[in-house]
């Protein structure tokens, strides 16, 4: 998409909006294991919620942004739980629709991260999804409030939605199509190989969808698994030159942002004592989007992404307590040497020493 055809998304074009960010996609009830080990050996689970887009909405709300979550859930107890829980984080759920026939999706998982590649590797977490035929899979342009989706400064989508059904794919295509005016459209590729085995197309669809968006977030591993693109962040940018802002996350925990005018900014990640890796990508997206909504420099946006990802990594569930915004701002403003010395441990977001630049001790999170 050329700049001339790209819909406007400046602050001036988005003054008459209902909220800062709208996040659209499926959320499910998730069951977290009571102890480490394979699913076959876990004796019990704790109920929580999980969903990339609702995770982002909740994290943004936790940092004071007005957010709306749009989805479709069953007319069942799990649907009640989802809507109540997301709303309890301060998110507007008025555009969530109830499906009288289809159920709310659920899934069970272990402590490890979901596999990105086609094959399960040692150390990958197990995830058992029960979402086929779910209420959210019936989202479409006809069953979704499109005006509510366009009512934010930012509309955040992920590649997960496009893999759920042909109707969901049609919805994502409609929301990423050029139109005037439209919000800044953010797209987290969020490639999951297991979903695309039964998806209405191939993972190459994600590349086409990303090309119609303004801001795209993708991991190097995702680009390699979904599109066969290897060679580092620059190779991903070469394969995806259209978005005015592209963020590529690398295996060394760094993130690199590319702008439409050729600027390249890299921010290294943080040393984190990981409790569970699930939800870190969504938290990174929320941190980066928060910085974008605030108009921060690119390096600061990337660091805010790393900080919210660190909050998720040091908590057991998808939704973690975020650091106070002022404390995060202080950490994001550290010089490179001090940033590189940070070590974040469980409990760091509630720690009174958040402004410190020294490495962690045995008694302090930061």
Written overview of the protein:
The structure is a single chain. The chain is an alpha/beta fold. It is built from 13 helices and 16 strands. A hairpin with a 4-residue loop joins β13 and β14. The N terminus and C terminus are likely disordered.
Secondary structure: number of strands:
16
Q: What letter string, H or E per element, gives the SSE order? A: EEEHEEHEEEHEHHEHHEHHEEEEHHHHE
Q: What's the story with the biggest beta sheet?
A: 8 strands, mixed
- Strand content bin: 15-25%
How would you state the average pLDDT, rounded?
A: 88
Write down the Rg: 19 Å
Helix-residue proportion: 25-40%
Characteristics:
alpha/beta, eight-stranded mixed sheet, globular, four-stranded mixed sheet, 366 residues
Short description:
With 366 residues, this protein is an alpha/beta fold. The protein has helices spanning 52-62, 77-88, 146-149, 159-162, 166-176, 193-196, 204-211, 220-227, 233-239, 280-293, 298-313, 325-332, 336-341; strands spanning 19-24, 28-33, 45-50, 67-70, 72-74, 97-99, 106-109, 127-130, 152-158, 184-188, 215-219, 245-249, 255-259, 264-267, 271-272, 343-344. It is built from 13 helices and 16 strands.
